[in-house]
Amino acid sequence: MSSNLVELECSACGKKYDPEQEQHLCTCGKPLLARYDLRHAAGTLTLQTLKDRPRTLWRYAEVLPDDPPVSLGEGLTPLIHARRLGARMGLESLYVKDEGLNPTGSFKARGMTAAVTRARRFGVKALAAPTAGNAGGALAAYAAAAGIPAVIVMPADTPSANVMECQAFGAKVVKLNGLISDCGKYVAEHKDREGWYDVSTLKEPYRVEGKKTMGYELWEQFGGKLPHVIFYPTGGGVGLIGMCKAFDELQEMGRIGRERPRMVAVQAEGCAPIVKAWEANQQSAQFFQNAATIASGLRVPGPLGDQLILRMLRQTNGTAIAVTDKEMLYAGRELASLAGIFAAPEGAATVVAARILAASGWIKPHETVVLFNTGTGYKYSETWEKALQA
Fold first, then answer.
1. E strand intervals along 124-224
2. Averages of pLDDT over each 10 residues, the chain, 390 residues
3. Which domains does the chain have, with CATH numbers?
4. CA dist., res. 117 & res. 122, Å (int)
5. How many CA atoms lie within 13 A of 188 on its CB side?
């Protein structure tokens, strides 16, 4: 299949870039998004043709870079109808998309399969990324599969499972006292001198491409329809941005109309830059001082995609909501005991948010609602130990 990838476009100023060259941020400092020949893609990307394709996210080949994939079998995660949990909230059609069943136990595998696939094409010497947890393990795994050295920079208090997996995959692990934002600065300061390809969130255009396949999967798993509401744990927000991009692409291909799920960004009260900006009706978020939460994936005090996230919440008539760590721990037990899903705290946070919005009437009882569990609870054994002792 010839590549449908036409160009890269700045998400802010619209400047165009050549996708055959290694590109990171636009000259204006904002993220680049991949653009495809969707008219051509529409000819072969249908629910019917998908039935015979490989059961990984690379089945959506028309809307992904066409390099030979560095794949570990990621994507096509189950969409589970959580009837008992839904009944407790008064929701008939509550579903959980369980991303914890991806390789390395989280949705980060989606972004990294695409980013590392593309980086290999460019012949990069080493890959580097800051991580609060799961992104590091995913990058280390895909770098190992591709035979490319990886450097993972993480806060010193990152959960031990994340540290161990990075080391097991052969990555160099650098631990810093600080937050993911400090780790990001470290990568930015060292990358040119060390010859690293920076795979930081939204600092290259392809992690969002891998993540957007969550949107394509919902469209496929719901038989060509979309849910009414999507709850998404939002740290860097790449998955939320990616899904909205997928829905735009699906519309352009004539697969859906103008309808969109209402996107809900769920954050931790201890680190809620998007929620604060949303409540203040701002176009961009301020850096969140003294960020602290047990949900390490939500501890992103200054997301680079803040303007995109806020724009997409507005465009979909969505909202943003923050929940406490204590609520997450309780909801994690509830999700496990009522739906059989052992979730990361980030995933459990969506249960809290859904209950609040269902009780307020923002969600109607008949609406189809999808909660994203972005990672497996097994990666958070220390957190879960505390929760079960409480």
1. 126-130, 150-155, 172-176, 196-198
2. 84 97 96 98 97 97 97 98 98 98 98 98 96 93 98 92 95 94 94 96 96 98 98 97 98 98 98 98 97 93 96 98 97 97 97 98 98 96 81
3. 5-59 (no CATH), 79-106+206-389 (3.40.50.1100), 108-198 (3.40.50.1100)
4. 9
5. 12
